[in-house]
Design brief:
Blueprint: H1 14-35, H2 37-56, E1 66-67, E2 76-84, H3 89-98, E3 103-107, H4 109-114, H5 116-124, E4 128-131, H6 146-164, E5 170-171, H7 183-188, E6 192-194, H8 208-217, E7 224-228, H9 236-249, E8 253-254
Parallel strand pairs: 1-6, 2-3, 2-7, 2-8, 3-4, 5-6
Helix pairs in contact: 1-2, 3-9, 8-9
This protein binds zinc ion (ZN).
InterPro entries: Glyco_hydro/deAcase_b/a-brl, NODB_dom, Polysacc_deacetylase_ArnD
Pfam family, one: Polysacc_deac_1
Keywords: Membrane, Transmembrane, Transmembrane helix
Length: 259
């Protein structure tokens, strides 16, 4: 697999983006004043919608750069497993071993702190870890300000470095949401946001076979596959197994971008 330097999308000018957003609102005020409220309101709604879209749509890249697939025509994919470590981690590691597959585990700091041995096991068995925030504040992450984001992202970065001896280079947004301030801690800690190109919506009402079909239906060369662990429905290992069987049947390899 390509060296990660070619894949990294660390935000280069997060403050410039924030400045441009501020300027856009100055422009709204000027249009409102010079051309009337109808034009001003229309421009205000358009600029706000653009920010809301980039915040809520996980693959939107204009606010904070994101890697959504790997630039390769080879039959290889990047498996990413979010929300651990969990009670599923060891079973999922066994499944990956059985299929000689590798994955990046995007881990939550507080869960890693509670089960540091699982972080050790992930790394010892040849996988990688990424940063998935300190507390996984799924309801609030989209509206956190710069300080809270530094605690969530930078705090987790430090914790994972202490636990594993290495600083992650990949970051996965909590429930995929990314507001304009997320670029600040990513730039500070040299992190690249990783989105995905194949997912199964394995949320609350999870039907494993449907989830597997949704994921495998989106698999193509260079796909980044979003999986989870530790969900209450308990089907995450079964879903991983289905995906691994599909990859083997279709002649896909898994790859692990290295820093
Ligand atoms: Zn998550």
């Amino acid at each position: 697999m390509k060296n990660a330097d070619g894949l990294r999308r660390v935000p280069r000018h997060p403050r410039l983006i924030l400045g441009l957003l501020l300027l856009s609102q100055v422009a709204v005020a000027m249009v409102w004043w010079r051309h009337g409220w109808q034009w001003g309101l229309a421009l205000m709604v358009a600029t706000h919608l653009a920010v809301v879209w980039a915040t809520l749509y996980p693959r939107a890249s204009w606010l904070v750069p994101a890697l959504s697939r790997l630039p390769t025509a080879a039959r290889e994919v990047w498996l990413t497993i979010d929300d651990g470590p969990s009670a599923d981690t060891l079973a999922m590691l066994d499944l990956l071993d059985r299929h000689q597959a590798r994955a990046t585990f995007f881990v939550v700091g507080e869960r890693a702190l509670a089960q540091p041995r699982l972080i050790e096991a992930i790394l010892q068995r040849g996988h990688d870890i990424g940063n998935h925030s300190r507390h996984h504040r799924d309801k609030l992450f989209w509206c956190l300000g710069p300080r809270a984001l530094e605690r969530e992202i930078g705090g987790n970065q430090q914790l994972l470095q202490q636990l594993s001896g290495r600083a992650p280079v990949w970051f996965r947004s909590v429930v995929g949401m990314t507001n304009p301030f997320v670029g600040l801690p990513l730039a500070r800690h040299g992190l690249t946001r990783v989105a995905w190109s194949a997912r199964g919506f394995d949320g609350v009402d999870c039907q494993p076979q449907q989830v597997i079909e949704r994921i495998t239906g989106a698999i193509a060369p260079g796909a980044i596959v979003l999986l989870h662990e530790g969900a209450r429905h308990g089907h995450n290992p079964q879903i991983l197994q289905g995906v691994l069987q599909y990859l083997q049947r279709e002649g896909y390899r898994t790859c692990l971008p290295k820093a």
